[in-house]
Amino acid sequence: MRSAWSSRKWLCFPSLYGIQRRPRLLSLFSNFTNVEVFMADNNKEKVEQLIQDGLAHHGAGEVEQARDAYVQALELEPENAKALDLAGLLCMQCGEPSAAEEFYSSAVKIEPDNTRFLLHLGILHLEQNEFRKSEEALRKVIELDPDHSDARLYIALVKRAGGEREDAKALLEVAEELDRQNASYKKWLGLLSLETGDLVAALEYSNYAIELDPLDISIYSQLGTICNEMDDFDLAEKSYAAGLKVDQDDMRCRAGLAYTRIKLGKLDEAKREIIEANKKGGEEHPLVLAVSALLDSFLGQKQEALGKIERVLTTESSSLDILLLAHQLMVNLEEDEKAEEILETMQNLAPDDARVMTALLA
Fold first, then answer.
1. Which of 354, 315, 309, 311 is nearest to 327 (CA)?
2. What is the dihedral of CA 225, 229, 230, 232, to 10 degrees?
3. What are the backbone angles phi and psi of residue 21, rounded to the nearest 5°?
4. Which of 12, 116, 251, 285 has the fewest CB atoms below 10 angstroms from its CB?
């Protein structure tokens, strides 16, 4: 059997886990050449044990040990599709998409009807903004398993990325019917409902998501955003505060709470939240900095406000959340020309987003 992986370099050393890149380890795969490999029966159990060891290390965030276990498994059985898939997953999580694609593609070539491998390949393409390839792989998953709900979730995200939000909602509604206990489906349905202007549905889905997964900090931030859009600032304040009880260092909730207190006219309390965020290392967090700029605009500190928002926009010009805040700031400062420029950018970025349309009408 000819090795499908032996000429590859393993490049999986992410800052995510604080692992230092080491040239010796980076060249592990480059030391192999294509050879004929014959696997003795008594090695099969060893390969399976190595895969299980790799999974255990993988789950614990022990990247080097996980990789070493997968390397050893693939040395014994280069065409082991499960090991190839796991190697791809590790590379994907480590920020090495090219290596991940090679591993996933090799696994799919060996087992073309394996929905897990196809799903991973589709997710990778989605993260790389290769939407056509992503949908192609994910559609194959549904062909093989018509009730595969996760494939529908990721196709929905492909559709959302292309601005097809109603199609995305329809796909997610089917996924949610297939798995009513999945908090992620409800969270995404809540976000899509927010983006399409159905605030009541957005609120309901987000509340359901919190009931199913009360430790997902992102849902509290989403719920706070929805409540602010509904002008229910008291409930928004409670939502962000509840999120901070789950994780007091979450900057989205901290910034959201400060923003809500600005809307309530509690400028001193908003300022305290910004100070607290800065103490926790969030002074350069885009949302914290943008909300801080908005607060400055209400405090009569025009130059400080403009300086901060310009810093944020240099790196976050494609973030709708940031652009919405920047637009509010420019309107508040009566910088009409800049407000119009930002509004035009938002229209190009998300023309069918209900919040953009509201800003346009205003």
1. 309
2. 60
3. -75, 130
4. 116
- Fill in the DSSP letter of residue 36: B
**Do both 130 and 61 map to the same domain?**
no
Residues 6+ apart with CB under 8 A from 87: 5, 10, 67, 70, 74, 103
DSSP state at residue 7: T
End-to-end CA distance of the chain, in Å?
Answer: 67
- How far apart are alpha carbons 198 and 30 in whole angstroms? 53
Question: How many domains does the structure of the chain reveal?
Answer: 3
pTM for this prediction: 0.84
Tokens 């230092």 correspond to 20
What percent helix, strand, coil does the chain show, rounded to 5?
Answer: 75, 0, 25
Distance CA 168, CA 235 (A): 28
d(CA 11, CA 141): 28
**pLDDT one-digit tens code per residue, 232-247:** 999 999 999 999 999 9
Contacts of 30 (CB under 8 A, 6+ apart): 7, 8, 9
pLDDT for 307-344, tens place per residue? 999 999 999 999 999 999 999 999 999 999 999 999 99
CATH number for 26 = 1.25.40.10
